């Protein structure tokens, strides 16, 4: 540790001497322990005789504010120079946000969402980007399964029913419930899951994730719904979208891809018992609607040859994003 800190200190001084500023961005910082946050505070103390040479941005969910206000982190809190909270979007901004996301995804000038859908989307999401993403994903799936190339107000209504949401104004709590009790998109597992995914390595089950209507992101870092800590897993490796009828797994341009029955797939409709190879791990899909009588299947997975070292490539690194600034 002392060698690493010395290396970092030398790097910071070199960058400062060259007239360059160094910024450290820590994403999903609400998941950091108090011990790690204290280490971050110590890093912020690196300085020359004139000024500090490292700027730090902690980005996270609303729980981060409460963590920073903890009595045990008073010294870190004293170092925080600025706190910025991203508030919800307006109705107009919600429509602009959706159009922008579609444009980035390659929609060009096509009107994927009918004009009368944006008001309904805002009514049920309150302009919260994470909820907008979840509702739009589910509405897109509804239109896709009906073989339509435009999302209608009926598709949004169907998505709301799938997610079992109420109007945003009627929600007892806004965003910010504890992560352990929250599925992505702010919905809690108050109904039986439609399916389950078991994660295994070398035939041994490591974790299980229930699937409710909506989207689940699988990847290497803590900001995913399902985290698999492996250097052969990309930061955001794949997503699983579940509706009342089916679940679809889709590769998110990962380094090592997805394999089903030894074939690399980009998008795959999951069937009960499907095993998806992801890096050196296996995902077993259990459809609760068709597998009710199968009992507990969490002890072992079918033996599937994992990727050899010559077949698996180390996943490339990605970059994070923003909130409190520490000086």
UniProtKB/TrEMBL annotation:
Gene3D superfamilies: 2.60.200.20. InterPro entries: AAA_22, ExeA_AAA_ATPase_DNA-bind, FHA_dom, P-loop_NTPase, SMAD_FHA_dom_sf. GO terms for molecular function: ATP hydrolysis activity. Residues 216-265 form the FHA domain. Transmembrane segments: none annotated. Signal peptide: none annotated. PANTHER family: GENERAL SECRETION PATHWAY PROTEIN A-RELATED, PHOSPHORIBULOKINASE _ URIDINE KINASE FAMILY. This is Secretion ATPase, PEP-CTERM locus subfamily. It comes from mine drainage metagenome.
């Amino acid at each position: 540790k002392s060698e690493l800190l010395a290396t970092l200190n030398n790097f910071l001084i070199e960058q400062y001497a060259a007239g360059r500023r160094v910024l450290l961005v820590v994403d999903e910082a609400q998941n950091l322990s108090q011990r790690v946050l204290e280490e971050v505070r110590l890093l912020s103390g690196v300085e020359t005789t004139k000024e500090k040479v490292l700027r730090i941005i902690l980005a996270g969910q609303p729980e981060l504010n409460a963590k920073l206000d903890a009595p045990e982190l008073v010294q870190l809190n004293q170092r925080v120079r600025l706190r910025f909270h991203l508030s919800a979007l307006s109705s107009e901004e919600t429509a602009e946000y959706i159009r922008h996301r579609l444009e980035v995804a390659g929609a060009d000038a096509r009107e994927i969402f009918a004009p009368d859908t944006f008001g309904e989307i805002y009514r049920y999401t309150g302009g919260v980007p994470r909820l907008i993403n979840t509702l739009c994903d589910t509405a897109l799936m509804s239109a896709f399964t009906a073989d339509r190339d435009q999302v209608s107000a009926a598709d949004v209504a169907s998505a709301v029913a799938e997610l079992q949401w109420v109007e945003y104004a009627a929600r007892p709590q806004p965003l910010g419930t504890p992560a352990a009790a929250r599925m992505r998109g702010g919905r809690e597992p108050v109904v039986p899951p439609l399916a389950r995914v078991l994660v295994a390595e070398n035939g041994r089950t490591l974790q299980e994730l229930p699937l409710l209507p909506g989207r689940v992101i699988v990847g290497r870092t803590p900001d995913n719904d399902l985290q698999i800590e492996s250097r052969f897993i990309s930061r955001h490796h794949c997503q699983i979208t579940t509706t009342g009828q089916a679940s679809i797994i889709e590769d998110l341009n990962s380094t090592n891809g997805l394999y089903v029955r030894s074939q690399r797939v980009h998008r795959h409709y999951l069937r009960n018992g499907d095993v998806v190879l992801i890096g050196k791990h296996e995902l077993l899909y259990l459809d609760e609607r068709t597998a009710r009588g199968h009992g507990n299947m969490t002890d072992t997975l079918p033996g599937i040859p994992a990727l050899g070292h010559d077949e698996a490539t180390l996943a490339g690194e990605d970059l994070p994003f923003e909130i409190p600034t520490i000086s």
